[in-house]
Amino acid sequence: MPLVALIFFSVSGGAYGIEGLFSASGPGMGLLLIVITPLIYSIPHSLVVAELGTAIPVEGGSYHWVKRGLGKYFGFQQGLLQWICSFVDMALYPVLFTSYLQSLVAAVAPGQHVLFSLGGLRFDLNWFICLAVIVVFTALNLLGAGWVGESSVAFAIICLTPMLILTAVGIAHILGHGINPVGSLTTSSDQSMWNAFGSGLFIVMWNYSGWDSVSNVAGEMENPRKHLPRALAMAVVLIMVGYLLPAIASLSVGGDGDAGWKNWDAGSFSGVAKALAGPWLQVTVTIGGMFAAVAMFSALLAANSRLPLVLAQDGYFPSWVAKESKRYGTPIVSIIGSSAIYALFCLSSFTNLVIFDVFLTNLGILVEVAALIALRIKEPELERPYRIPGGWFSIGAIVLSLASVCSWAAWQQYSQNGGRAVVYALIAVSTSVLLYLPLAVRRARKARREAPEPAADQALASS
């Protein structure tokens, strides 16, 4: 159950944040996307994670899969790009926590109570609350992935309980008043089905991504070869139901008005709760959202902080980055260093860069699929405690599904928002590509310096 909870918060955290799907695509298409996306996106990716995660259950997960399947160059790109992607992604959750807190305590608001400025950056009360969240959950992560998993179970109960209450109240409202929660398929008669599908797909993909994150802490799991496939399967069902039921219940308020789905964005379920049952449920849902935000930060910090660790262990980053706690076995420098970067990204509009998050996430997914195919060809005898059933036919279906979904979502995002996300993604990829050569040369020189004299002579002779 701690592993299920860890996957749950690495991917979802509950229905908090799914609201924008319905204002973008409409109630009918929104519900349809919640059901369809796991079939064409989540389940194919989780199958890939289950096979690779059980075959190579090591710290750093996807980095080692790609390195072993496609070589050191692509392994480096996978590790570094996913870590760069986390800078923006991880900054969202402390900010989201303060946004929920702001709805309860009006004094907590961005831009208010500026304590000091430095180089144009404004350090206000809002940022210091983000910093406090980061410090607390960094300390928890320093105790090890086991503590993060155990705490995630408690957080899951706290997060899901308000949504269960909201679901019960909303369904009772639907049945008692004979309401049709779907109402319409799209946002309006002017929006085509394809446009509605594309608008919402990008949103729901972000809410269904992150299945490979838990693999980064596989080295700290108890028997991952046995538990990982089962936990992934349970998490897929839990997350889909966790989105679907609260969404149906919340649609009972209709489309018009302040709480109507036409005006929904992240955090709107709090307003829906107030409209359905009054301030007590609004406060309950808001507190659930606060816990969901910090639990997602904690789970993803456990995953993302292992990426600089394995890059340091392989010689690309300085060796001190790989320093581990003697007592808990956790990567101290990697966890604290990652958290410091996330705190800086909480300062300003850096969080707006999340627009390129799904681009890099999907790129990483496609590279993992390529690694799966390469390992099936190169290492057919590799022990695979879980093997994707159906042979090459199933792998072909997975490739077709993930490539189609990722391409369609990227095109829709480009069509609706222009090239900004593409530019940011290209900058990140170019940075990673350009860094590889100097870091690889440095790594090779260090290996030659540290190699025993006879081994160095043999290597020189063979070359």
Global outline: globular
Termini Cα gap = 51 Å
Cα-atom radius of gyration: 23 Å
Query: What's the overall average pLDDT, rounded?
Result: 86
Helix content: over 70%
> How would a textbook summarize the main sheet?
2 strands, antiparallel
What portion of the residues fall into strands of 2 or more residues?
A: under 5%
Number of helices: 17
| Series of H and E elements | HHHHHEEHHHHHHHHHHHH
Secondary structure class reads: mainly alpha
Instruction: Give the neighbour order of strands across the main sheet.
Output: 1-2
- Low-confidence segments, ≥5 residues, pLDDT <50? none
Strand tally: 2
Key attributes of the depicted protein:
463 residues; mainly alpha; two-stranded antiparallel ribbon
Q: What topology emerges from the helices and strands here?
A:
Layout: H1 2-11, H2 20-25, H3 27-55, H4 62-70, H5 72-104, E1 114-118, E2 121-124, H6 125-142, H7 145-177, H8 193-207, H9 224-250, H10 269-277, H11 279-304, H12 306-313, H13 332-345, H14 357-378, H15 391-417, H16 420-450, H17 453-462
Antiparallel strand pairs: 1-2
Helix pairs in contact: 1-7, 1-9, 1-11, 3-8, 3-9, 3-14, 3-15, 4-5, 4-14, 5-6, 5-11, 5-12, 5-13, 5-14, 5-16, 6-11, 6-13, 7-9, 7-11, 8-15, 10-11, 12-13, 14-15
Give structural notes.
Helix 3 (27-55) crosses helix 15 (391-417). It is built from 17 helices and two strands. The protein has helices at 2-11, 20-25, 27-55, 62-70, 72-104, 125-142, 145-177, 193-207, 224-250, 269-277, 279-304, 306-313, 332-345, 357-378, 391-417, 420-450, 453-462, and strands spanning 114-118, 121-124. The mean pLDDT is 86. The protein is globular and about 80 Å long. The longest helix has 33 residues, at 72-104. With 463 residues, the protein is an all-alpha fold. It has a two-stranded antiparallel ribbon.
